[in-house]
Design brief:
It contains twelve helices and eight strands. α6 (129-143) links the parallel β4 (106-110) and β5. The chain is globular, with a radius of gyration of 22 Å. The chain has two domains: 3-230, Alpha-Beta Barrel (TIM Barrel); 238-294, no CATH class. The mean pLDDT is 95. The N and C termini lie far apart (48 Å). The longest helix is centred in the C-terminal third of the chain and has 22 residues, at 273-294. An eight-stranded parallel beta sheet has the order 6-5-4-3-2-1-8-7. It has 295 residues and is an alpha/beta fold. α4 (60-71) packs parallel to α5 (89-102) and α5 runs parallel beside α6 (129-143).
Length: 295
């Protein structure tokens, strides 16, 4: 069973799929170790890691390489933020090819005009519905059963809730496996959207945005199939690192921070360090035995 099939089965289950945002293989392994059954590769998280704004300026090659590195280290299905698909319909087909090769289970593409913006900021512009539908048709044709296609609409802030629902219906008819309404502003809007769309739906529970804080259980009660927490871990990491650097500058030592640091052993256990040492020892032993036989 492929990763898309695994994720699809999860989306058809009774429990909501909760996918935290991950931005590196080590962070993905931490999320999987914590018990998450699906992972989300956030475009905002990745661009922030590169000290770039979330304006769709990362490239397909950068994103696919990072997704491949993550997917190769975890067994949980990986959902990848593909922004606007990295171009027009033909480019979207190429994006699907690359994401399949990278081992992703799903991608989402959105209906913004480049340069796109974070879905919770003002000033977004949308492509015509026909253009987005064309991208989705191209994506689905290339994806087959090997990759789920999630259609994100940012229309709530531009065309209102009715416009966003209308677009979502068109995207579902175009073959989108999942609908992702971005930056809804009330619990009632989430409920209305769910009642009018008959395919699986994904919610975004980001911080500092337009969506009120809701729990995974609350989204599940409304009928949502998946919720992502895209940048929570990245923001926590950055604040922690900022404080560590401040204290190092002031105190000149990490001695007072030792309880807050992951130990060498904890990290080695996370990355299965000793398996690599064992493999090296086995290879060296085999080499020595061969040398004795031929010596």
């Amino acid at each position: 069973m492929g990763q898309a099939d695994v994720l699809g089965k999860m989306l058809r289950g009774k429990k909501i799929v909760v996918a935290p945002g991950v931005f590196s293989p080590s962070v993905a392994k931490l999320a999987e170790k914590a018990g998450f059954k699906a992972l989300y590769f956030s475009g905002a998280g990745f661009s922030s890691l590169l000290a770039l704004p979330d304006l769709g300026i990362t490239t397909l090659s950068e994103v696919s390489q990072a997704a491949r590195q993550i997917a190769s280290k975890v067994s949980a299905p990986l959902i990848v933020d593909a922004d606007t698909g990295f171009g027009e319909a033909l480019n979207v087909a190429r994006t699907v090819q690359e994401m399949k090769a990278a081992g992703a289970a799903a991608i989402h593409i959105e209906d913004q005009v480049l340069p796109k913006k974070c879905g919770h900021l003002e000033g977004k512009e949308l492509v015509d519905v026909d253009e987005m539908v064309k991208k989705l048709v191209s994506a689905k044709e290339e994806a087959g059963r090997a990759l789920l296609i999630i259609a994100r609409t940012d229309a709530r802030a531009v065309e209102g809730i009715d416009g966003a629902i209308g677009r979502a219906r068109d995207y579902a008819r175009a073959g989108a496996d999942v609908i992702f309404p971005e930056a809804l502003e009330t619990r009632e809007e989430f409920a209305e959207f769910r009642s009018k769309i008959d395919v699986p739906m994904m919610a975004n529970m980001t911080e500092f945005g337009k969506t009120p804080f809701m729990t995974a259980d609350e989204f599940e009660a409304l009928g949502y199939n998946m919720v992502i927490f895209p940048v929570t871990a990245f923001r926590a990491m950055m604040k922690t690192v900022k404080e560590v650097f401040r204290r190092l500058m002031v105190e000149g030592t990490q001695r007072g921070m030792m309880e807050e640091l992951m130990t060498r052993k904890e990290f080695y256990d996370l990355i299965d360090y000793y398996r690599y040492e064992d493999a090296d020892e086995r290879a060296m032993g085999a080499a020595k035995r061969l040398k004795r036989r031929t010596g």
